[in-house]
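Office hours follow-up: a student asked to see two folded examples consecutively, so here they are.
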Amino acid sequence: MNIKKFVKYFLIGFLILIVIGVTASSLVWFLAKEDKEIAKTFTLLSSKGMYVEASELMHDALKKEFPIESFENGFKNSKPYVDTSFSSVSMENNVTVLKGTAKTEDGCSSVLDFKILDGKIISFNISPLCLNQLNFFTLQFLFILTTLINSREPNTAYFKFYLLSAK
């Protein structure tokens, strides 16, 4: 066999492998489209305090492990996410595995990791969760409360509050 035929067959084989790879990855992205929407909706709903709606997207076994009260406690101080994207999509044993990021309006980012089986979330991880910061007035209130509890002289507590408010 001469060198030209070898190169020709090598290039044809290489192109066939590329076409197969592109087709397979496109197929995975297409099949995971609904699962990506489920994960996105779950992330947006849970960060906006819509826990009942978000929990409807979870598998029944996960709902038992993570009841609404736990769900609310976990997400009640989170900032609302406004955007999600998934950079990694794979399918293993009929389970769609999604990895990506979620962002809040102010640019805080969290890593997303979801596993979805038959259109229901079987596991998720959002970390680090973007949390609302305590505002200045909340901090003032906590400071005053602590001072009042620890102070034996009421005027001292008032004076400390006044100095803090003046800053």
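And the second, which I mentioned at the end of office hours:
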Amino acid sequence: MSVADRLASRLRLEPAVWLLPVSSLLGAMVVRDSDDPTSTYRLAVAVDAHLCLFVLAAIGAGCTAWKAGRLRRGGWTRRPWVRSPGRLALAEATTTASIQLLAYAVVLVVTGLRSALGAVPADGAVVGTAAVVLLATGAVGWAVGWSIRTEVAVPAVVLGTYLAMVFPPAMEPLWLRHLTGLHDDCCTHGEVLARPVILAPMVLGLGLFVVSLLAVSAWRRPVLGLVAVGVLVASAAGAASMVDHLDDRSTAMRTSEVRCTSDRPALCLWPELADARPSVSAVVGDVIDRWAAAGIPRPERVSTRPADANAVTVVLPLGDEASPEAVRRILAWAMVPELPETGCTDDGVPIAVDDAARVARAALALLAGVPEEQVRAELGDDLLPPVHRVLEAEPRARVRWLERVRAAVAACADVAPPVPR
């Protein structure tokens, strides 16, 4: 029999092929309910599509369990083996994972074309994670189907895979979610997936894959069972050690190149925001001119890259919403950094400094041309009187107060600078 004939025979008996339309449809439905079609950031769109992984992994595990159970029912486990069970499990799990990866690609294409990106958002790290997870769950499904009755194995691995991927994000400790391979909280334009969040599920997935192959071979070579236990412990411990210092966030600061203008201040934007550059540049220039008229020094640079933050650069955390109103508000808010989420005080955020920072941002927003109604909606009426006192203050006193507020926020000070009068 030729290679093509063997492949055709295998695919004809492959349940994942029969279920390919169902897998693709269910995956696309899951993503459609949760994605953001306005995003132009390739990684964010890829992560949106990646959410289908828990559906595809559960279906793939059920398919391999069913295939292993078919051989088990036929008495194959009791006959002389021409090929080792591990080699057979490798071939069958890889075939099913490849079919499920094809369904994943369909969801990726549909999600990309639906989004404002308008292209396939392929990201090597995200797709690599999906491939390893599908391979691991397929191998686990085969091992379970090889070991117990099909009518128990198939629903058990489908439900078990589903629960193993969707429950950890709702569990303590928070870092458990990073072992599932579902990167469901990524990413804004200034973020990328953290390296440990990419590597940990791959290490665990490859470990489970090897353990499953060893487990089916341990029927006649029990020593392989001990090896499997060792591999499972090592992979689980290794994966956990990569992420056990993290909280629920799976992102790190994005450091890739931005494209800058030669103006002063220079405007540096992410490549995917190039279409918005003319309008953003005009608004940023107008805001800087308004602030300069109020005595606030001009920054030398306005950049969307968080790593560029320094004394002469304002970081503009611009997303897909780049309307003039949004740019004015975001730029004003960016002039005063947020308080650190941890380490400020024993009981959380120092309220006085937080209120001073909010007053400073509101004053800068009003100077930038943000309507007072919008500022009031975000700030509340209680803090409007000190905002107006800041606006009425002498320019030098106002600038000194803004600098002291920024320093107090950076130092997490317990006492807020008094509002100038």
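Two things to take away from it. The two ends are 91 Å apart (CA to CA). Strands lie at 191-193, 251-253, 259-260, 266-269, 301-303, 313-315.
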